[in-house]
Amino acid sequence: MAAPPKKAFALRLDPALHAAVERAAAADLRSVNAEVECLLREALARRGIKLAEPVRPRRGRPPKTETNS
Fold it and tell me: pLDDT digits over 55-68, tens only?
């Protein structure tokens, strides 16, 4: 099952802010996009805004199916 598509939009940032997010992303071994998403989720949680857990694609080898032949 594929993950639902993500909403894409343009985001204009101050270059110093982008550089700081880029450093934080590198420290967390994330992309800048994933870091921004993580920071937004954390900020919303601190404000008491609850979000549903993101639907993540399944990783790894699919489970073996049992065949009775």
Answer: 777 788 888 887 66
> Is residue 67 in some structural domain?
no
Query: Mind listing the pLDDT tens digit for each residue in 1-43?
Result: 566 688 899 999 999 999 999 999 999 999 999 999 999 999 9
**Alpha carbon separation from 43 to 19, 56, 68 (Å, rounded):** 19, 21, 51
d(CA 23, CA 19): 6
Task: Give the residue numbers spanning the domain of 24.
Answer: 15-46
Number of Cα atoms under 13 Å in the Cβ half of residue 21: 16
Q: Is residue 25 part of a domain?
A: yes
* 15-27 vs 32-46: helix crossing angle, rounded to 10: 90
Q: How many domains are there within the chain?
A: 1
